[in-house]
Amino acid sequence: MILESSLEPSSPEYEGNARAMTEYVAKIREAERRQLQTELEHGPRAREKGKLLPRERLARLLDRGSPFLEISSLAGYGMFEDSDGRFSGGKLVAGIGHVSGRRCLVVVWNYAIKGGTIDSVNVQKMLRLQEIAFRTRLPLVSLHESGGGNLDKSAAADPWAARLFVEGGRIYGQQAQLSAAGIPQITVSHGNATAGGAYQVALSDVIVLVRGQTQLFLAGPPLLKAGTGEDADAEELGGAAMHATVSGTGEYLAEDDADAIRIARQVVAELPPDPVVEPTRPVEPPRYSPDELIGVYPDDRRRPLRIQEVIARVVDGSRFDEFRAEIDPATVCGTAALGGHLVGIIGNNGPITPAGANKASQFLELCDLKGLPLVFLQNTTGFLVGTAVEQSGQVKHSAKLVQHVANYRGPKLTILVGNSYGAGNYAMASRALDPDFVFAWPTARQALMGGAQAAKVMQIVAEQKWARQGVEPDERTRMAVAQQAQMIEFGLEMLSESMFCSARLMDDGLLDPRDTRRVLMLLVAVCLEARARRGTGPTYGVQRL
User: Fold this and answer.
1) What is the reported pTM?
2) Is residue 512 over pLDDT 60?
3) Exposure string (b/e) for 109-136, b if CB count within 10 Å is 16 or more?
4) Across the strands, what pairs with 99?
5) Can you tell me the distance from the alpha carbon of 320 to that of 317, in angstroms, rounded to the nearest whole number?
6) Which domain holds residue 265?
7) In this structure, what CATH number is given to the domain that contains residue 54?
């Protein structure tokens, strides 16, 4: 059926929603702009060395005019030494784009931000990118240049620094597994690659070296001198010409950055073409403009959102075959076409009840039989609580839904639209339940519970304690509890905020709501193509003999 919308874009309420969302999108773009500004400030030094800036390298690698979906652009935002986005991004510019007509996962090391040094954010982002490579089976093209491990004062502020050694090793192990799985890894070594950085290059299937720029070694000249007393020139020790003609650690020797990227594009052009996954039905635009999504989410979070308003502006023709609509309208299930491909959709109009969990579980079973991609549109305060629902089996029904989502065999794509609290966050396929991709709107909130609810819980606990003790607290004590409750509410609201969560890789990036349909269409295509991609590599990975 064709969904009917009650949204009124000319209403003051819509205009207020749109204004609030536009301001938040602008805040995200400003953080990204500051990251770019840091890179541009490095321009004069790069020019002196004859180098292209990281995003200039990216632009030359990608097919001109083709779309590029960036992943985790705000990784590390507000963490360690970053306060406004200048050092965010995890020193990696990464995403899905087209190279020589092939869809690829592209990783560009941002050497213009702190030398592209490795810290916990960088490692966690790289591990997530490798997860995506395994799932999508996309060729992984890396433009590498890193200063190695971060040894400056900010490293001491990194709470996960002690784990870097282990998790950095996971990156190398997964590179070997990607190669064995027949997922191509093409790397251009644009500059420094020392110790662990050298392995990230050497474990690639194809390596392009750059004359006069590549420095690839386990220990650079200073460490070599300190450890063995040997004096060595960087070019002799690990320069591009040496590796191309003596050690054999590299397949191609390029003259400069541009030439190296040209060679990388040629290597990609020789890969098998992308599999063709034809739409099963004609593609048609929604009856309602996706641009109207900018004002669909209430500025006042206490007002409900009807998730069908989002669906109507995302799916083909605004057609949605709702499943068991008469059972618990707070949990919305149904099928629709997205870019001509049939998908299942599960969304929220409120908390998840036992009946809603049962309905969603049955719907998941049917979608699993059909092998459909699933799209989750999260906006829930979690599972409903109370004596009545507990007696109705809320725990077992919610656990059953978690089981179905966790074990779903088809692609899972999640958009965090608004609230995402408690176990509802898990059951609606957050990062915890391992979906293929998770993107969020600026209005998304992820936490154990909302700040106001947590504050109220704290007050109730205090009052129950006074009652048990037979104590009548004075006004000063009550004021102290109230202040503590306010601090809890403020703290949880800050910790659940979308930019805070995205900085910690709880999603794959923040979307302008108007881009939701385009992003979902791309991701559905990527996930369906992944099934048709077949690796041809040896089980031990590509090796240089």
Assistant:
1) 0.92
2) yes
3) bbbbbbbbbbbbbbbbbbebbbebbebb
4) 102
5) 9
6) 14-274
7) 3.90.226.10
